[in-house]
């Protein structure tokens, strides 16, 4: 009887293709698993302590919970040194394993094997409830939660519940602010290893996922999947308030702020608030005066590439969006969508202060200023403020010019409506 680990020496029969032989195994009293004599690194002197055997020690760590190998970057600890080496590649970015099909690189052999299932189509993990198959076991575990609905792991900060403890651990980093994964190139930090992986592709320039319809390339499979909705027309995210559908969840989030009135992005220069960070960025160009996009036809400068693209249609005469109800064509898709509501009679934008409804969001926004008293548009000559941009334009014409002229008597008027009244139209 071995004293230190309570090891029992037993004889078992091992079979290979050449012969049947008797070998010794050592049983662990903690878990009952047998360790081969090769694993136990038998010594010539049987009195030599098997507690020194590295393979037995590794096995014992499973039951004692001991993790002697610590990462000096993030503090994670491991029972085996090779697990630490694999983990440290997250910090160093080393990728020793290469896919021969597409050139993708991976930190571990297991990651490469899982990736190769994209090319082979192998999905070895099947759900015994519905038969759906998965390439990775964790996807199967996540899927099974749909059938049971069980979420035993709860967050003590916000009450959210999760089907797996790993999901809870990841979620709790939102509350703690912990960002344990760091980019060695630029110092950016991330809560999750996946976030770091995607970020590092910015530095390497790798884009392994290609659209078969248009050839566009993307860093992640999820980004490609979202892009492909342009071609398929799929819009899986719908607004429960008005029924509008969106291809991206973040577009739905931004849209819903129309209904809630939330404007979380604020300009530090003038205090204006916006529903999305992109609109804030464009707005800030007003203060900086930056206009990086220039028209080669007339020299006009625009703040965004999209604004330049729309402007250039003035020169080309391009109106790519046509109405299928009448013959009108438009330079912008949004203008076509707004126009089509004339035919359908749809007024999807309703005022929450009164019962008025509008075909266009801009008209609703302008209308709501009647209730709020907001006057965003300021005359730079006299300081007078207006609720609508059109009213500011009319005011400026009053003080500067009368652009509408009668061809019969040469009278001039501030607005086209005044001219029409004069002409009796």
From TrEMBL:
InterPro entries assigned to the protein according to its UniProt record, in alphabetical order: Znf_C2H2-type, Znf_C2H2_sf, Znf_C2H2_type
Organism superkingdom: Eukaryota
Keyword Zinc appears in the UniProt entry: yes
Disordered as annotated region, ranges: 37-56
Organism of origin: Umbra pygmaea (Eastern mudminnow)
Family, as annotated: Belongs to the krueppel C2H2-type zinc-finger protein family.
Family annotation (Pfam families): zf-C2H2
Location of this chain's protein in the cell: Nucleus
Keywords recorded for this protein, A-Z: DNA-binding, Metal-binding, Nucleus, Repeat, Zinc, Zinc-finger
GO molecular function (one): zinc ion binding
Stretches assigned to the C2H2-type domain: 69-96, 97-124, 125-152, 153-180, 181-208, 209-236, 237-264, 265-292, 293-320, 321-348, 349-376, 377-410
Protein known as: C2H2-type domain-containing protein
Any single GO CC term annotated in Swiss-Prot or TrEMBL for this entry: nucleus
